[in-house]
Amino acid sequence: MESLIKSQHAQQVTGHGSRAGKTPTTEMVPATTGGLTMSSDESMMLKLIQQTHSPDAREVQVRGILSLVEDILDRATLDSDDSNASMLPLPTEDKLMQSSMMSVLDSVSYVIDRVACEIAYKSLTGSDAHEITMSVFEHLSSFHWHGKLVLALAAFALNYGEFWLLVQFHSKNQLAKSLAMLKLVPVQNRVTLESVSHGLNDLIREMKSVTACVVELCELPDRYITLDDPHLSRIISTIPIAVYWTIRSIVACISQINMITAMGHEMMNTQMDSWETSMLANKLKNIHDHLAETLRLCYRHIEMKRSSESLKMLHSLFDTTHIDNMKILTALIHPKNHSTPLQDGSTKRKVHLDVLRRKTVLLLISDLNILEDELSIFEQIYTESRRNLLGIDGKSHMPYEVVWVPIVDPIEDYERYPSLQNKFEALREPMPWYTVDSPKLIERHVVEFMRERWHFMNKPILVVLDPQGNEASLNALHMIWIWGTEAFPFTRTREEELWRRETLTLNLIVDGIDSVIFNWINPENYIFLYGGDDLDWIRRFTMAAKATAKDSSVKLEMAYVGKRNHSHREQIRRISEAVRAENLSHSWAEPALMWFFWARLESMLYSKIQLGKADDHDEVMQGIKKILSYDKLGGWALLSKGPEIVMITHGAIERTVTVYDRTWKTHVPTKGYTKAMYDHHHDEILRETGKPCSHFDFHITARSGRIPEKMNCFECHRSMEKYMSFACCHDDKLLDQDENYNF
Question: How far is 494 from 514, CA to CA, in rounded Å?
Answer without folding.
Answer: 25
